[in-house]
Specification:
It is a single chain. The protein is mainly beta and about 160 residues long. It has a single domain, classed as Sandwich (Immunoglobulin-like), CATH 2.60.40.1890. The protein is built from one helix and ten strands; from the N terminus they run αββββββββββ. Strands 1, 2, 3, 4, 5, 6, 7, 8, 9 and 10 form a ten-stranded mixed sheet that branches. A hairpin with a 2-residue loop joins strand 4 and strand 5. The longest helix has 21 residues. It is globular. The structure holds copper (II) ion. The site of copper (II) ion (CU) has 5 residues, from strand 8.
Length: about 160
């Protein structure tokens, strides 16, 4: 009985390890926009580079009741924001989530995101075979893109 359990545990651990190794996605320059009291939604941004082609299919965080993958694009002369079911990540090509483009939308915030704190995010990826893997990241909360060239940097 105990032996069987150990074997199963070992097998599960082995599978998990293989899954993580294969679906590794590099997460760089992540940040979330700080919010003020009463603000219920904000965006989180980062650069994702997948070793093998995969798709970002979900995001969750304990700080928000609901988190979605959003895209912004021009519809005629109006900038529209909408939820998308998945974001394609081609192999070895950086996909940037940034203001005015793809972003992670954190909604129903439980409390304001204070500058200089950090937000834990769980990213769910689904590869070409339909295998889902999750990756935990923690991104800093700030008021503008950390490297300074964001259009939001000079708003106030
Ligand atoms: Cu959005």
């Amino acid at each position: 009985m105990k032996n069987t359990f150990n074997q199963i545990a070992g097998l599960v651990a082995g599978l998990c390890f293989a899954g993580v190794a294969m679906a590794q996605v590099k997460v760089e320059s992540g940040w979330a926009r700080a919010t003020v009291q009463g603000q219920k939604a904000t965006g989180a941004f980062m650069k994702l580079t997948a070793a093998q082609a995969t798709r970002l299919v979900a995001v969750s965080t304990p700080v928000a009741g609901l988190a979605e993958i959003h895209e912004m694009k021009m519809e005629g002369s109006v900038m529209q924001m909408r939820a998308v079911p998945a974001l394609d990540l081609p192999a070895n090509r950086a996909v940037e989530l940034k203001p005015g483009s793809y972003h992670l939308m954190l909604m129903d915030l439980k409390s304001p995101l204070m500058k200089d704190s950090s937000v834990p995010l769980t990213l769910t990826f689904k590869d070409a075979k339909g295998v889902e893997t999750q990756q935990q990241v923690s991104v800093p909360v700030t008021t503008a893109m950390p490297n300074g060239h964001a259009d939001g940097a000079h708003k106030h």
